[in-house]
Write a structure and sequence with these properties.
By secondary structure, the protein is an alpha/beta fold. The protein has a domain at about 10-180 and about 210-240 and about 300-315: Rossmann fold, CATH 3.40.50.720. It has helices at about 20-30, 65-70, 90-110, 145-165, 190-195, 215-225, 245-255, 270-280, 290-295, 305-310, 315-330; strands at about 10-15, 35-40, 55, 70-75, 115-120, 170-175, 175-180, 205, 210-215, 235, 240, 260-265. The longest helix is centred in the N-terminal third of the chain and has 22 residues, at about 90-110. It starts with 8 loop residues before the first strand and ends in a 6-residue tail after the last helix.
């Protein structure tokens, strides 16, 4: 099993973030000697209590990635620009696609023994009938909605291409919607949980998603590093929930009444366009056209392959919601 008891270094990207910091804690507990790639000036609150060497660099500056990965035995790549809407898609593509490709090439040149690449269920296909999709569900580039999903799809394809053509020793994990503590930014999913807990979501649309505890996602990364098959993808999810049921779970945790108003998608298009226009002036869009396009299909996934091959054992979604609401309250993002 890959550990670092003899001083072997594991490079982890994205450790200042939500998922990455959870992965860092799992790796450290397993005995890995960690080197963390962090951007200059990044918010490092999530690194508190983690013993690691920090290496300043940026995925958008690939010239420095060779030095970051030098001497490393393992690489766990979690870093990504995770936003549903961005005013400049080019910056997101540079980090998520070009940055990932450059990092993988640097790892190849450095002779890294084993890699885990954190992709996303956003890179996978959806069941057209609203059922559970898996790693083999057909997907095409044309079916991918939004710049974030396109960037994750393109990055995943680049990794798979390097596996086939150059023998990149990479395993891919595809987390669903992670929820839990230390979502300091917060992520789009975390923002929804916080807003619902604060009573700022009065209505919902008829869609669905897969919710998973962030710590279970982190454990899935560790299992993929130790047990995953090179070139394979593993969905790291937990429970498929209709949006109305997820909001009801949050409301129960927050001691609020759940939203009862179901909204059709079509009338929301002018609102989304207006929100995107305001976003160009620094006002975070609460709804975008990509949100509405994604809401047309239920984003339900099966983690059966990870459970079967990795020993992945996620908790029910209620645990994730409980811990997320408790953390948002503790840091003042949701008032008791």
């Amino acid at each position: 099993m890959p550990t670092s008891p003899d001083g072997d270094i594991t490079l982890l990207t994205g450790a200042t973030g939500f998922v990455g910091s959870a992965v860092a804690r799992r790796l450290a507990a397993r005995g890995h000697r960690l080197r963390l790639l962090v951007r200059p000036g990044s918010d490092r609150r999530n690194l508190e209590g983690i013993e690691a060497d920090l290496f300043e660099g940026d995925l958008r500056q690939p010239a420095g990635l060779a030095a970051a990965v030098a001497g490393c035995r393992y690489l766990v790549h979690v870093a990504a620009d995770y936003r549903i809407w961005v005013p400049d898609p080019g910056a997101m593509l540079a980090a998520n696609v070009a940055g990932t490709t450059a990092l993988m090439q640097a790892a190849l040149d450095a002779g890294v023994e084993r890699i885990v690449h954190c992709s996303s269920v956003a890179a996978l296909g959806l069941d057209p009938g609203g059922g559970e999709a898996d790693e083999e569900t057909r997907v095409t580039a044309e079916a991918i909605v939004g710049v974030y999903k396109r960037s994750k799809y393109q990055a995943e394809q680049a990794v798979l291409r390097l596996v086939r053509e150059r023998g990149l020793p990479a395993v891919i994990v595809n987390p669903a919607g992670p929820v839990g503590p230390r979502d300091i930014k917060p992520t789009p999913t975390g923002r929804m949980i916080a807003d619902a807990a604060a009573g700022r979501i009065p209505a919902y649309v008829d869609t669905g998603l897969n919710i998973v505890h962030v710590d279970d996602v982190a454990q899935g990364h560790l299992l993929a590093l130790e047990r995953g098959r090179i070139g394979e993808r593993y969905i790291l999810g937990s429970e498929n929930l209709l949006l109305r049921d997820l909001l009801a779970l949050v409301a129960q945790e927050a001691g609020r009444k759940p939203p009862r108003i179901a909204l059709p998608v079509a009338p929301l298009w002018p609102v989304a366009i207006a929100c995107e226009w305001l976003g160009r002036f620094g006002i975070e869009p609460v709804v975008t056209r990509d949100h509405l396009r994604m809401a047309r299909k239920k984003m339900f996934f099966s983690s059966a392959k990870a459970i079967r091959e990795l020993g992945y054992a996620p908790r029910p979604a209620g645990h994730a919601v409980h811990d997320a609401v408790a953390w948002f309250r503790a840091v003042g993002m949701v008032q008791p």
